[in-house]
Model the fold of this input.
Amino acid sequence: QVTLVESGGGLVQAGGSLRLSCKVSGRTDYVAAMAWFRQSPGKEREFVSGISDNGGYTDVAESVKGQFFVSRNNAKNEAYLEMDILKPEDTADYYCAGRDRDYPSQSEEDDTTWGQGTQDTVTS
Done:
């Protein structure tokens, strides 16, 4: 079994930054590409950013381009999401996702392993 655990969420003022981490443990070979999704209150879960197995390809949603930055450290079995210039509309539960594929997907595939999520709240 493989487990993904997010950390780094919290409360931040608008204009501030947060750095989320996703630690992969257990059967780490089950996870290649990784991605971040978020779900705001009353809204559907949406794709935020993804990164390929070796970090050579990254994908960022248009709504947060230039604001969010994805990276990974395979030696530590971790992925990261740097969130800058945060706005109240960025308030959401953020989820880490992993797949045994080379490249991330913007959709919620059935073979995805999910973390339990971490809550980010951005105040005015």
In short: The chain is about 0% helix and 50% strand. The first strand starts at residue 2 and ends at 7. The mean pLDDT is 96.
